[in-house]
Amino acid sequence: MNRKTDIVVVGSGIAGMTAALTAAQSGKKVTLLTHGVGSLAISSGSIDVLGYVNGKAVADPFAAMADLPENHPYRLVGEADVRASLDWLKELCGKAGMAMQAGEGNQQLVTVMGTLKPSWLTPLSFHAEAIEDVLRVAVVSVEDMKDVHPGLIIDQLQRYPALAKKEFVKAILPNPIQQAHRNVTPLDIARFVERPEGLQWLKDSLAPYAKLYPVLLLPPILGMKHSQKIWEQLCSALNVKIVEMVSIPPGVAGLRLREVMKKALNEAGVYLVENTEVVRSEVEQGACKALTTVATGGENRWEADSFIIATGGLLGGGIGTAPGKAWETIFGLPLDMPENTEEWSSPSIFGDSLFARMGVKVNEALKPVDAEGSVILNNVRFAGRILGGYDFATEKSGHGVALATGWHAGTLAGKE
Amino acid sequence: MNHNTNLDKCVACSTCVVQCPVSEVTSKFIGPRMLGPASQRFRLLNDGEDNSLSYCTNCKNCDISCPHGVDISNINMLARAEYCREHRPSFRDWVLAHGELEAKLVRYLPTFLANMGQANPITKLLLSRLGISPKADLPKFAPKQFPAMFKAYKQPEGLTKKVVFYPGCFVKAYAPQVGMDFVWLMNKAGYYVECPDTFSCCGTPLYTNGFEEDARKNAAANLMEMAKWHNEGVPVMSLCPSCQLMFKEYPVYFPDLAETAGSTDIGDCMQFVIECIERGELDPASAAVQTPLDIIYHAPCHLRAQGIGLPGFDILRMLPGVNAVNADAGCCGISGSYGFKKEKYDIAMAVGSKLFETIKDSGIELVSTECGTCKVQIMHGTGKSVAHPLSILRQRLEGSN
Ligand SMILES: Cc1cc2nc3c(=O)[nH]c(=O)nc-3n(C[C@H](O)[C@H](O)[C@H](O)COP(=O)(O)OP(=O)(O)OC[C@H]3O[C@@H](n4cnc5c(N)ncnc54)[C@H](O)[C@@H]3O)c2cc1C
Known about the structure:
The complex is a heterodimer. By secondary structure, chain A is of the alpha/beta class.
């Protein structure tokens, strides 16, 4: 089968969805090809912009961008477009009833590991400043929820000087899910709380703690589609400030955000082709003509005027590796890595590893370039974790880079 | 195990768990990651089976979501087949799996007798005893089945091009008109349609209910017939997403058969129609009926799993006057015969509830989808009428119907 469209986007993580949406909003016909749903679905859904540069915490990510290397995606895209992409997402989420808000500078979110994590744009229920003003805080979990242990959280939090003097208490709510055949995750409870009986259960179970503790820290269990409304209702009915903690997968809020974006894609008329892997490209005179996918069974060919590749890194499948080599998987672009694989990673787990920043080298238009800086493919852009020159895990810049570069690529392609 | 699944590609990221529609509505199911790749490691040690094996609906949303291409649902289905080799499935499951045989048996009965299960309280009670939910709306047998209708139909003379149609059980027994609509469209596009009697049930209901050997026999017969046409260069196609998917998965379930058969790929009728439109053999722009019509489209999971996009939805969007929107509200829940089972009925309805709400909230009266059992479930859950995209295409092109 052969299909034609204006723009083909590959990958439905946050970068690909953003690129597809912005391109479609500029009036283009967009096809989105993907063989998985991307890491947004399991992430915490808070948009980290820039938490650390060279290992040092930054208060204002935009001020700190000047300290980033020149080939860092933020430097290529420019501060104005990073801000524009965040505003764009804010508007999208606001319209869907899931307001996202930034703080003064980086916000410190509380995680279920009992750590504080810098982030920028987050749903209201994750804003944790309320802890600063109170003495007594209850840390809540649910029976059988194996990944959220209030005891551990409290021990860890108390290691932060600013929190050492707080009076924390453990609160374990009874498991409301009968006949559970598996461990209970925050997602199970969030889906239960989305229903009226679940919301009632949560309200009743929290009430005794709300009388004594002005701030309640919860796993991300405040519903799905109506999380903001549920958060507002509970806070006002119980007269407390509820703060959701950032969870390990399933992070719940990432799925909430993904569902908002997925709905927007459908409404914008983006043509989504799922469960299909792009395996080949046809390139003529420095331009991509078509991509070939394999699905269950045969091959299909997708022609377009321009292409945006948002295939993620090692986790998403955008980068392939073998001892001594790494490459981008669709066009087979070689990534600049040392032949000695030992040099790829740092001996320290949290150190600065080369593999974490390996990716495609691009110019300001996000088009791939060779070592001399000449464009290799003139109608192809890359966005998200597939880009080289940054390490989202140590910088805390994951969704931020993906969003900004997806927005930049989609907007530029949309204008052509 | 004689098969090669790629379970070691699973990094336990839990993406399939958050996208599984069954896990979403019931905690009785351990979930795709645990039942699939995680349990498989224990299966390889012969360490017993998880008792929620039968709760996987094989809807394939886990495979669709996996970032590493692990075929989780196939791991589950192979495990079920293995389990059922030693633990015979229930008579209820036999009945639900062997719909083709039952359709053959009732074909000479008057329709009211064949369909007496629908209204008759005694039959309902019997079905309930058997383990079929009395709340379920089983599909109704058509007054005349497809093979008989097709034989009685005279195709125009002088058609030089040819396609082979694989009707599948749903078209054969319950929705023969959809098959006839396809024949009409092909004739109009200049193709003579062959529909060999040797084609039997694709085997999906047999395999997923634990009747591996029966499924294998069907697969062998189907592949032999298909190879014959492939050798002549005639395309073979089906309009049922689940049948198509089963053909494409024969190599996983029956590697030995697939090896001798060559390609097990069966074409998609909707995709073929689009190709006809592109070649100018059919012209939606000149449809006889162009009056405004709102349609809400549901993409069957087994179509989404094929990675070919939504050709049926594309066809609707090409029709002048038609405003087609994609419901995009996930699985309908029925999963073949799963939602008819007494202990699964409520789960299936809960899975479908998002889709039902989306359809009701849209205010649109006509639903369109390719899958026969999705249609049954949507009618049951919403009370709306549901038409196959190709039936709508025919009505718009032909006009007088
Ligand atoms: C568990 C986890 C939690 C995280 N939490 C946060 C957080 O809270 N905040 C934050 O800011 N960052 C977080 N991050 C980082 C952030 O998720 C990523 O940096 C970012 O989402 C990357 O997005 P992406 O769209 O570039 O790639 P991905 O999300 O990896 O998406 C890539 C997509 O491309 C598809 N694909 C790949 N190859 C092909 C192909 N050949 N054909 C078709 N499709 C293909 C994949 O299936 C996938 O859909 C987290 C990361 C992880 C792993």
